[in-house]
Design a protein that fits this description.
Growth Hormone, Chain: A; 25 helices; 0% strand; globular
Length: 535
C-alpha cells in the first residue's frame, strides 16, 4: 500500500497509533546526538545573556579605544533582550516554509556576523549593531526547540527538550569562566568558532520527518529521515504512522477545500486558531509564562550581584564570583531537571520546583522582615550597592560589579544613604541560592520546552515564535520595573509577595497543566479537544 493510501485510510478511521516497540541503544544515541547538535544553537543565547557582564568591565579597564558612558553601557546590556522577540516572530513562518534543519543552519549565519563585528569593533556603534544581530539571532534559535520536539521519540522527548535549558546555561557558564582568562575580543573569536562547529554539525542531521509530511507532503523524504533515526523496521513503521496521524488531524476536516484559492487558504489559517487543540495550549502557556516572570526568578539572576551583597554577609561574596556561582547552579540544576523529567514527568517536576520556591521565598522574606534593623531594602536603589549606576563616570565599574543592569543612571535617585546589610550571617543568601536552585529545576526550564510539546505541528512554528516573544516581552517589563517597585515596597515584602504568586501558580498548574511524559502529539491533542469533537 502506498503512503498516500495509508493517509486516506487514516482519515477514514480514527485508529489509535500504538507506541513504538523497544529500539536499540544505537537508535537512542542517534536521537540524542541530533538533538544535541540542534540545541548547540542555544549556547549562543546563553552567551548573549552573560557576555555584557564580561564586556562592560573590560571595556572600562583594558580597552582605551572604545570609551563608553553609563547610558551606553545600559544599552549594550539591554539591547539583546529588545531585539530577541523579533527573531522569535520571524522564525515561525520561515521554518514552516523552508524547513527546521534548513533554518537551523541559516540561524548560524547572523551569529557569525555578530561575532565578527564584536572582534573587530572600533567604536560603540559596532557593538550596538553586533548585539542587535546577536539578539535577533537568539530569537531565531526557537527553531531548535521545534526541531527537537519533532525528531525525538515520545519516550525521550521531555528529557531531550529539557536539554535546551542545559545548553543555554552552559553558554552562560562558558562566558563567565572565559571572562576570567580572556579578553573580550579573543572571546568573540572563540565564540565564532563555536558557531562554526554548530553549523558544520547541522549538515549531518536529518530534516524533521513531521515537517516533510505535514508541510511538504513528501512521504519518501520523511521515510528516509526516519530511517536515519530508527534502524529497526517495526519502529520505523510505527513512527511513520504517528506522523501520518498528525497529517490526518491537520487535513481530514479540509479535504474538500480548493487548495488553489489564496483566500480559502488564508481563511483556513485563521480557522485553525479556533481549534481547541490550538487556543487552549496557547492560553495555558501564556499564563504559565506570566507566573514564571512574576516569580522573580529572572530578577534575581539579572540583579544577582546587588541582591547577594544586600542580603548576605558584607564580605561573603564579590560580584563576579556570584555570577560564576549562578552559572554553576543553573547549569547543574538544568541537568538534574533533564534527568528527573524523563522519569517523573513535567507536572511533578514543576510542582516540586514551585513548592521549593514557595518555601525558600517565604522563609527569606519573613527572615529579612523580622530580623532587619531600622533600615530596609526600600532604599535598595539608593544605596551604594547601586553606586556603579549612580556615579557620573565608570570609576567603580569593575569586575566585582559586572552584573550589568539594563537600567540607565537617570532611573535612580541620587540622595543615597549609607549602605545597609540585613544580617551578619549568610542565611538569607543561602535561601536566595535555594530559590535559584528550585526555580532552575522547573520554572526557568520547563515552560520553554512545553512549547514544543503542547502546540500542534500545524501551528508550532508560527505560534511558538509568538509565545517566546511574549515571554521575553514579559521578562523585559518585569526586569525594567523592578527598581521602581522597590520604591514602594521592601525587598523582604517582595519575596513574600512572590511566595503568594508562586502559590497561585502551583494551584493553576494543578488544574490546568497537562502531563506530556510518554505521550504522542496525538495523545496531547486529544487532551485539549472538546467533548463534542471527541465523539
Amino acid at each position: 500500500m502506498k503512503p498516500i493510501d495509508i493517509e486516506k485510510n487514516e482519515c477514514a478511521k480514527k485508529g489509535e497509533v500504538k507506541h513504538d516497540p523497544s529500539f536499540s541503544g544505537k537508535d537512542t544515541l542517534k536521537q540524542i546526538m541530533a538533538c544535541c547538535i540542534a540545541h548547540s544553537l542555544v549556547i549562543q543565547a546563553g552567551i548573549n545573556m552573560a557576555f555584557s557582564a564580561v564586556l562592560l568591565p573590560q571595556l572600562k579597564d583594558s580597552d582605551p579605544d572604545i570609551v563608553i558612558d553609563k547610558s551606553q553601557a545600559s544599552w549594550i546590556a539591554s539591547i539583546v533582550t529588545i531585539a530577541l522577540p523579533l527573531g522569535s516572530i520571524f522564525i515561525g513562518p520561515l521554518m514552516d516554509r523552508y524547513g527546521r534543519k534548513q533554518m537551523c543552519i541559516i540561524t548560524t549565519l547572523p551569529f557569525l556576523l555578530a561575532w565578527v563585528l564584536h572582534a573587530f569593533a572600533t567604536n560603540v556603534w559596532f557593538i550596538y549593531i553586533a548585539r542587535i544581530i546577536a539578539g535577533f539571532s537568539g530569537g531565531l534559535t526557537t527553531v531548535s526547540i521545534v526541531y527537537v520536539s519533532e525528531i525525538a521519540h515520545p519516550k525521550f522527548r521531555p528529557m531531550l527538550l529539557s536539554l535546551n535549558s542545559v545548553f543555554v546555561t552552559f553558554g552562560i557558564l562558558l562566558t563567565c569562566v572565559f571572562g576570567f582568562w580572556f579578553n573580550w575580543r579573543l572571546m568573540s573569536q572563540i565564540f565564532f568558532g563555536v558557531v562554526l562547529l554548530s553549523c558544520l554539525g547541522l549538515y549531518f542531521i536529518p530534516e524533521s520527518p513531521y515537517w516533510l509530511v505535514v508541510f511538504k507532503n513528501d512521504h519518501i523524504a520523511s521515510s528516509k529521515a526516519l530511517r536515519w533515526i530508527y534502524s529497526d523496521e517495526a519502529t520505523h513503521e510505527e513512527a511513520f504512522k504517528r506522523i501520518l496521524e498528525s497529517k490526518r488531524n491537520a487535513t481530514c476536516d479540509n479535504n474538500d477545500v480548493n487548495e488553489t484559492s489564496a483566500f480559502i487558504r488564508l481563511k483556513r489559517s485563521f480557522e485553525s486558531y479556533k481549534d481547541p487543540t490550538v487556543w487552549k495550549p496557547v492560553i495555558i502557556l501564556i499564563i504559565l509564562f506570566l507566573f514564571q516572570q512574576l516569580s522573580g526568578a529572572y530578577i534575581i539572576i539579572f540583579y544577582a550581584v546587588d541582591i547577594f551583597r544586600e542580603v548576605g554577609n558584607k564580605n561573603s561574596i564579590d560580584g563576579f564570583t556570584a555570577l560564576v556561582w549562578l552559572g554553576i547552579i543553573r547549569f547543574v540544576m538544568s541537568i538534574i531537571s533533564t534527568l528527573v523529567s524523563k522519569n517523573l514527568g513535567r507536572r511533578t517536576v514543576m510542582f516540586f520546583s514551585a513548592f521549593g520556591m514557595i518555601i525558600t521565598g517565604f522563609a527569606c522574606g519573613f527572615y529579612l522582615y523580622i530580623f532587619s534593623n531600622s533600615h530596609s531594602l526600600h532604599n535598595y536603589n539608593t544605596t551604594s550597592n547601586y553606586q556603579p549606576f549612580l556615579d557620573s563616570n565608570l570609576t567603580n565599574f569593575n569586575k566585582t560589579e559586572s552584573a550589568a543592569t539594563i537600567i540607565p543612571t537617570s532611573d535612580f535617585t541620587t540622595n543615597s544613604t549609607q549602605p545597609h546589610t540585613y544580617t551578619s550571617n549568610n542565611i538569607p543568601l543561602f535561601l536566595i541560592l535555594g530559590y535559584v536552585c528550585f526555580s532552575s529545576l522547573g520554572y526557568l526550564v520547563i515552560p520553554w520546552s512545553l512549547i514544543g510539546e503542547l502546540l500542534p505541528v500545524k501551528v508550532r512554528g508560527k505560534l511558538g515564535g509568538v509565545l517566546i516573544s511574549v515571554a521575553y516581552l514579559l521578562m523585559f517589563i518585569v526586569i525594567k520595573m523592578f527598581p521602581f517597585i522597590l520604591e514602594a515596597i521592601s525587598f523582604a515584602n517582595l519575596l513574600i509577595i512572590s511566595g503568594v504568586i508562586n502559590s497561585a501558580g502551583l494551584i493553576y498548574m494543578y488544574f490546568w497543566l497537562p502531563e506530556t511524559l510518554g505521550k504522542t502529539f496525538e495523545d496531547i491533542a486529544r487532551k485539549f479537544q472538546s467533548s463534542k469533537a471527541k465523539k
